[in-house]
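Input record (Table S2, row 172):
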Amino acid sequence: MAEQNKQPLIDLVSAKGIAEMDAWLAKYPKKGKRSAVMGGLMMAQLENNNHLTPELMDAVADYIGIPHMAAYEVATFYSMYNLEPVGKYVINVCTNISCSLRGSDEVLAHLKDRLGIEPGETTDDKQFTIKSVECLGACAGAPMFEVDRVYHENLDKEKINSIIDRLASPAN
Ligand code: FES
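Output record (FE2/S2 (inorganic) cluster complex):
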């Protein structure tokens, strides 16, 4: 990544975000400080309408003192990081083996019908994004998806509709 015109993290996130970054750094010994990158990237993402930009990833890496590539490797490996703008709610549908055997295709098909978008897309009203992701560690509850850090398991059409209705309600 280009090293020019970069802005420091302190100019890109709030004071609360910097405090959170410092708290992540304090959790690890000096030689393990690169482990703070996951928490730092999540903080930066949440401060930026739920998505990361190259500028933010560079700034997090610089703040920690690691190569930019180390932040990119983490951000591109884990599905919880969004590398482009997403909707208010990101529906992470697990399509790994247990969920696949128990109907994740039907879950995705129903979401596509209901929301009118494909995985990787966002609804026109910017409310929902669908993502197809790897195992989220809730295989016993397959098929499942995660939205807003809440796991929804043993999904069927009725459950999916009720979750979407609730999230789409003006009260949310
Ligand atoms: S395979 Fe879906 S949660 Fe593990």
